[in-house]
């Protein structure tokens, strides 16, 4: 029973935790592509900034991933 | 769950030297350092006016972070050079650690059923240590610049002294509360920096292991795209770690410096007012 609850908790944690970063990264990519289309000369700079921004947006998803991993392998 | 792969958050202990457990990720960290030293001395020995391949890479990395530091410190070249070494070595160390397991055959060396090499950044202790280094550099140097201003940044007693009329009380209380929140924020930076790096690299490895152990058919070619994704995210996470620690350090120092200069200006204004 405990084992099953652990897996369930990890699954719910990851599923809900992936929602926010998914929406956020979509915004980042959408805005970045908008900016690139308006100003193609700056595309390289915008792209590298976009990657950094995405990695930061992703962090809440990564936190939930860490929690899920702890639930699965440590607790 | 009989065919689940062997995944562990804690790295395996290889040997015990003088009471200290030497784990696989510690050993790999030493190798990464050796690789880094090798690269640096190779580049240094071959420094030329017309750069070779290695020198172009090294110059590109150093130049990128130098530009970022110049921007963060408002064009102060002396300060930018002071922190350049720390930031670039953070980046290079994390980058090589992330990619170390991509080197062929390193995953095949097994001693007593334990993989000898494991990406050091997939061990939470290492990323936590790196984040604490950033935390200490930003705060200890800020304290050495001006202990009073540093403490005043978090515990805003000064705002109570500014109360002139009853309507200001709410503003003062809000300032104090925000100052307390800043303490939490400062500690959260350590956790967020370390957990981000650890989560990304560890998840990349777990992904490859899980895909490879799904069935016999997914063993050979299917994990390749995930390896490529791991390569990309290893580079980006190293970059993000370096850029974020740079901005934390520079942001802290800039606020303290501004506060110190503001204090000086106020003092000189008071002196002028007294003189006239």
Q: Would you list the SSEs of chain A in sequence order as H and E?
A: HHHH
Please give the largest β-sheet of chain A.
Answer: none
**Which structural class do you get from the secondary structure elements of chain A?**
mainly alpha
Unreliable residue runs of chain A:
none
Shape estimate of chain B: elongated
How much is the average pLDDT of chain A? 88
Adjacency order of strands in the biggest sheet of chain B: 1-2
Helical proportion of chain A? over 70%
Q: Estimate the helix proportion of chain B, in percent.
A: over 70%
Low-confidence stretches of chain B: none
Taking all residues together, what is the mean pLDDT of chain B?
83
Describe the biggest sheet of chain B?
A: 2 strands, antiparallel
**What proportion of the residues of chain B form beta strands (DSSP E)?**
under 5%
List the secondary-structure elements of chain B in sequence, H or E. Answer: EEHHHEEHHHHH
What does this 3D model show about the protein?
The complex is a heterodimer of chains A (75) and B (276). Chain A has 75 residues and is mainly α. Helices cover 89% and strands 0% of the residues of chain A. Chain A is built from four helices and no strands. In chain A, helix 1 packs antiparallel against helix 4 and helix 2 runs antiparallel to helix 3 (43-57). The longest helix of chain A has 20 residues, at 19-38. The radius of gyration of chain A is 17 Å and the shape is elongated. The mean pLDDT of chain A is 88. Chain B is mostly helical and 276 residues long. Chain B contains eight helices and four strands. Chain B has a two-stranded antiparallel ribbon with strand order 1-2. A two-stranded antiparallel ribbon of chain B has the order 3-4. In chain B, a hairpin with a 2-residue loop joins strand 1 (13-17) and strand 2 (20-23). Chain B starts with 12 loop residues before the first strand and ends with a helix. The chains are: A mainly alpha (75), B mainly alpha (276).
């Amino acid at each position: 029973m405990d084992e099953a609850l652990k897996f369930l908790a990890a699954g719910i944690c990851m599923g809900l935790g992936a929602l926010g970063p998914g929406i956020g990264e979509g915004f980042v990519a959408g805005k970045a592509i908008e900016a690139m289309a308006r100003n193609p000369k700056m595309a390289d700079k915008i792209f590298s900034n976009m990657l950094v921004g995405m990695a930061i947006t992703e962090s809440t998803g990564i936190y939930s991933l860490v929690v899920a991993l702890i639930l699965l392998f440590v607790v | 769950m009989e065919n689940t792969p062997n995944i562990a958050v804690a790295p395996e202990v290889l040997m015990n030297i003088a009471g200290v457990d030497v784990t696989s990720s510690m050993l790999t960290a030493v190798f990464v350092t050796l690789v880094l030293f090798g690269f640096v001395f190779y580049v240094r020995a071959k420094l030329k006016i017309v750069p070779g391949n290695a020198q172009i890479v090294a110059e590109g990395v150093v130049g990128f972070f130098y530009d970022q530091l110049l921007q963060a410190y408002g064009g102060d070249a002396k300060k930018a050079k002071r922190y350049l070494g720390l930031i670039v070595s953070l980046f290079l160390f994390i980058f090589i650690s992330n990619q170390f397991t991509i080197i062929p055959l390193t995953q095949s060396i097994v001693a007593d059923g334990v993989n000898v090499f494991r990406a050091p950044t997939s061990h939470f202790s290492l990323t936590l240590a790196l984040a604490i280094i950033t935390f200490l550099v930003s705060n200890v140097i800020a304290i050495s610049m001006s202990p009073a201003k540093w403490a005043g940044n978090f515990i805003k007693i000064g705002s109570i002294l500014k109360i002139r009329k009853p309507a200001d009380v709410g503003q003062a209380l809000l300032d104090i509360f925000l100052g307390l929140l800043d303490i939490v924020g400062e500690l959260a930076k350590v956790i967020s920096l370390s957990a981000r790096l650890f989560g990304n690299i560890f998840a990349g490895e777990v992904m490859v292991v899980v895909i490879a152990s799904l069935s016999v058919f997914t063993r050979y070619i299917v994990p390749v795209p995930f390896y490529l994704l791991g390569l990309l995210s290893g580079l980006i996470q190293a970059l993000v770690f370096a850029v974020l620690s740079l901005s934390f350090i520079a942001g802290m120092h800039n606020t303290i410096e501004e506060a110190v200069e503001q204090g000086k200006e106020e003092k000189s204004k008071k002196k002028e007012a007294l003189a006239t």
